[in-house]
Amino acid sequence: MSNNRVLVVDDEKLISWSLAAMLKKEGYQVETAASGKEALQKFECFKPELVMLDISLPDLNGLELLKRFKAANEEIYIVMMTAYANADSAVQALQDGAEDFFGKPFNLGAIKHVVNRAFEKRRLKKEVDYFRRELRKKSDHDKLIGNSQKMIEVFKMIKICADTDAKTVLITGESGTGKELVAKAIHYHSARAEAPFIEINCASIPENLLENELFGHERGAYTDASKMHKGVFEMAEGGSVFLDEIGDMPFAMQAKILKAVETKRFRRLGGQEDVEANVRIITATHQDLPAMVRNGKFRADLFFRLNVMNISLPSLRERKEDIGTLVQYFIETLNEEYGRNVLGAAPETLEHLARYEWPGNVRELRNCIERLMMLEQEKILSAGHLSSEIRECGQAEQEESPGVIRSDAAGEHIVLPASGISLEELEKLLIQLALRKSGGNQTKAARYLKTSRDTLRYRMKKFGISDGTREEEGSPYGGDDAAAGDPPCSNRLQGAEWS
Predict the structure, then answer these.
(1) 78 has which bridge partners?
(2) What span, in angstroms and rounded, lies between the C-alpha atoms of 366 and 354?
(3) Of 490, 316, 317, which Cα lies nearest the Cα of 404?
(4) Which residues contact 284 (CB under 8 A, 6 or more apart)?
(5) Does domain 422-499 have CATH number 1.10.10?
């Protein structure tokens, strides 16, 4: 207890002496003060963790000192003492933050018990704060990373939801895109950060147990209900409830969730009275909720209540420019986890990763980097340890011409380029190909495209395509190759390659 410091403030020397002697015997560091002025000086230099404070002092009122001590250190414990105890002063002291209140004369054993209890509460609070910080570190272990425009929009929405204390937030996106991380970011960047964040996966809990998990039960609600049990809506008071995979929630439960969302009240199983729920409700799903509403598999009224604030997470293949940043972040975090000192990934490795489509999104990428970290003995992650699926995907795209339309013995077929192509570009090029194949005969070209000649002529005019066999300069079908009836092998149009 050598670091537990107590300041005794009382102008009666016998009381100060007896309290100091008792506390020193218990192992506390003790200083005494006989006036308010002296108490303020020792409070500043001694920095006590607990103050035994008399209300009646020769120069300052103890209640005023209480306020000043609390203003300087809101976590300090203060026990008030007075020879003239009355209800008003006691109530006022406790309202102003005093831990306890004693009238004189008092029992030293009772004082010892109060002081010991106060320091035990302080110790437990420090432990709780420590574990909360550690838990926060673990929850932040995998963060939302990305510099792409799509992710910047996500970050903006997270800030809006956190700052405005939005009561309902719906997060949508494919599996592995980071919906849980978004939910935690909203909670821990909001005014509710110090309150609980509790997650329930609606797909993993049987229907007959889900209501009990969410709302709890009263004693005797069913055979094994020997005592009252609080559900997550009650345990998360003041914080956030995260309902993951809300699209998999049983239809019958959706009505009960709707009531909790609309009224901020719920009823325990077997209960007779409603319980208020001061919680933010964050939901997430990888499913297409509007389609489920149309098919009668999800309540429309619940969807509209949840969809007040919607955050749509892009898949990794929609933001491949973030792959390099993500890879480096995962290397750094896994270095710490495995005690490694990997510096980065080889350029060839990053090229393979950029070509792969990542059906499992960021979660799959992290697992991939973790595998490389365990297999690679050098400080640079080489491509040799990549899975065959990722390597072969990259090789296939390298070997294959990135063209969109190709002619071979079986005829023309379409291959989309890795960089993508707009529908208008594709339509223009299909019209040019049809005219090339028909020798400029618009009726035949229209037949190839399964449209009318008038529609074809309208679209030719729209795209500035000439009505003869000779195409405009810059067309991918000009030159000697065009005369042969096949498109050239290496022409580009606005970033798309054709072969």
Answers:
(1) 51
(2) 14
(3) 490
(4) 170, 171, 172, 173, 179, 180, 182, 183, 242, 243, 244, 245, 246
(5) yes
Q: Range with the lowest mean pLDDT among 35-49, 94-108, 163-177? A: 94-108
User: Does the 5-123 domain belong in CATH 3.40.50.2300?
Assistant: yes
- Give one DSSP letter per residue of 318-385, joined into a string: G-GGGHHHHHHHHHHHHHHHHT----EE-HHHHHHHHHS--TTHHHHHHHHHHHHHHH--SSEE-GGG
Give the pLDDT confidence of 29-57 residue by residue, as tens digits.
999 999 989 999 999 889 898 999 888 88
Token pair of 208, please? 């007959």
407 contacts: CB under 8 Å, gap ≥ 6:
485, 486, 487
Q: How many helices (H) and strands (E) does the chain have?
A: 20, 20
Could you please report the per-residue DSSP string of 395-439? HHHHHS--BSEEEETTEEEE---TT---HHHHHHHHHHHHHHHTT
228-281 pLDDT, tens digit per residue, is 888 899 999 999 999 999 999 999 899 999 999 999 899 888 888 888 889 999
142 close to 181: Cβ distance less than 8 angstroms: yes
Which ranges in the chain are annotated with CATH 1.10.8.60?
Answer: 316-415
B/e letters for 2-32, b = 16+ CB within 10 Å, e = fewer, are eebbbbbbbbeeebbeebbebbeeeebbbbb
Structure tokens given for 277: 């729920």
- Dmax (CA) for the chain in angstroms is 117
Question: The tokens of 206 are what?
Answer: 């049987």
As annotated, the residues of the chain forming the CATH 1.10.10 domain(s) are 422-499
- Listed residue (22, 21, 30) closest to 2, CA to CA: 30
Contacts of 225 (CB under 8 A, 6+ apart): 217, 218, 219, 269, 270
Which strands, in side-by-side order, build the sheet including 280-285? 197-201, 240-244, 280-285, 168-172, 309-312
pTM > 0.70: yes or no: no
Q: Name the DSSP class of 84.
A: S
Cα(401)–Cα(388) distance, rounded to whole angstroms? 21
Phi and psi of 3, rounded to 5°? Answer: -90, 0
159-313 CATH fold:
Rossmann fold (3.40.50)
Give the Cα separation of 284 and 3 in Å (integer).
48
Spatial CA neighbour of 327 closest among 398, 380, 384, 391? 380
Cis peptide before 314 (omega within 30 of 0): no
